[in-house]
Amino acid sequence: NGMRTWLESFYARGTPSPPIVVHPATFEPKYAREEDGCMRYTGCAHSLCELERLGALFRFSSEPVELSRDVVTSGEIACVTPYEKTTRSYRKNASGAFELEPVCDETALYLKTEAGLIVVSGCAHRGIVNAVAHGMKLTGSDALLCVIGGTHLYDAKPERLERVVADLKTWGDPYVAISHCTGLERGLDLARLMPGRAFFNNVGHTWTFNGSELERTKRD
């Protein structure tokens, strides 16, 4: 609903939205299988036509898109780690049967700074380390400053969590601003494994980077 509310603010002023970069598969119906075997719809809450009627200007691309000199979208994120498994998501094939889909529309945003790369993740359905590794290769960065967003580690076992932290630290001593798809327990585990570097990131937080130092404030 955030996208619709944002678009409505432009529509009310009679001005078009800025271009919105999305993967071509973004609006395809997607489903998750519940424990009882039933399929639950997990795709976009609003249709493409509905959002375009509100003035949305979508740019569809499966490749990285440079938004400015120092900001670029991920395009499709390569799966390179042997221990991060793609989220089990389903789609309907031409015959109407459910089949696994590769979650290729998972997208991240990369911000290049002199102190290192900032990675803004979505839900990290293709693995948070995969998202970071993709960004490091894409931008040519050799240091990771911060990861902000979802990690999809809510069901991670201790061994996997420790491996994630070890891999993130190969790029330096990054901050991790933990959001959705992490969960309280795994978030606390990350804070224990990365003392002084891992924090919960919620609505209203503002992150200010001064070189390699991080300041965070929360709006009341």
Task: Provide structural commentary.
- The protein has five helices and 15 strands.
- The protein has helices at 2-13, 48-53, 128-139, 158-169, 184-193; strands at residues 19-22, 31-33, 39-41, 57-60, 66-68, 71-73, 89-92, 98-101, 109-113, 116-120, 144-149, 175-178, 198-200, 205-210, 213-218.
- Strand 12, helix 5 (184-193) and strand 13 form a beta-alpha-beta unit.
Strand tally is 15
Secondary-structure-derived class: alpha/beta
Uncertain segments of ≥5 residues (pLDDT<50)?
none
Average predicted local confidence, pLDDT:
91
Strand arrangement in the largest pleated sheet: 5-6-9-10-11-12-13
Oligomer category: single chain
**Beta-strand share of residues:** 25-35%
Cα distance spanning the termini:
22 Å
What topology does this entry show?
Elements: H1 2-13, E1 19-22, E2 31-33, E3 39-41, H2 48-53, E4 57-60, E5 66-68, E6 71-73, E7 89-92, E8 98-101, E9 109-113, E10 116-120, H3 128-139, E11 144-149, H4 158-169, E12 175-178, H5 184-193, E13 198-200, E14 205-210, E15 213-218
Parallel strand pairs: 1-4, 10-11, 11-12, 12-13
Antiparallel strand pairs: 2-3, 5-6, 6-9, 7-8, 9-10, 14-15
